[in-house]
Amino acid sequence: MKFFRSLFQQICSFSYKTIVLAELEMRKLRHDPTELLTRAVQPALWLLVFGQVFTRVRAIPTGNLPYLDFMTPGILAQSVLFIAIFYGISIIWEKDLGVVHKFLVSPTPRAALVLGKALSAGVRGLAQGLIVVVIALLLRVHLNFNLLSLLGVALAVVLGSALFSTFSLIIACIVKTRERFMGLGQVLTMPLFFASNAIYPISIMPSWLQVVSHLNPLTYEVDILRQLMLVGGTGTYQIGFDLGVLAAITIILVLIGAVMYPKVI
Known about the structure:
Elements: H1 2-31, H2 34-39, H3 41-57, H4 67-84, H5 89-97, H6 99-105, H7 110-138, H8 147-175, H9 178-194, H10 207-215, H11 217-229, H12 239-260
C-alpha cells in the first residue's frame, strides 16, 4: 500500500512540475501573440493559392473529396510541423541566457522539463489549428464539427506538436548554436512535408517514397486529421493505430530528450 501511495505522489509531483513548466512557456506566447499571426501567413497562402488552383486542375486523385478539402488537414499538419520544428531554438536562447543552468540545478526531473516544453508546443499548435480552421471555413471546406471528432483533432495536433518540438529539442542539444540549428531545421521541414500524404495520396507516390512516407510521423498525423476533420474523410490506417504511433514516438523522443537536455550546455 505504501508503494502505491508513494508512486501516486511521485506521479502527481511529476505532473504538477510538467504543467508549471508548460504554463511558464505559454507566458511567452501571451506576451507576444503576433508570432501566431505571422505563422498563419504560410498556411493561408497554401489554401488560398495552391488549393484553389489544384481544385480546378483536378490533377491529383482524391476520391470523392474536393482537392481543397483533401489538402486542408495536410496544411494544418504542415503548420503545426513548421512551428514545432523550430521550437528547439528556445533551448539555445535559454542556454545563452543562463536559464538552462537554473533548470538543471533544480530538483525537477529532466523528463518533466522536456515534456513541459512539448505540452506548451501543443497549445501553440492548437492556436495555429484554430486559425487554419477559420480559413478553411471561409473557403467553404466541408468540416466535421462532431464533438468527438473535434477532441480527436485536438489530441492529434497536441501529439504532433509535442513529437516534433521534442525532436527539435534533441537537435538543439546536438548542434548547440542558433546558426547550425536554423540551417538544419530548414533542411528537415520540407522533406518531412513532401514525404508525407499532406498534399497527395500515398498511392500515387513512387515505391521508394511510399516506404519513406510510412516511416514519416507526419503521415500518421495527417491521416488522423483527414479522417476526423472532414465530412466523408477517409484514411489509410485506423485512427487508434495512428494515435498509438504518434504517442509511442513522442514517449521515446521525450526519454531521449531527457537524456540529451543537460548536454545542451
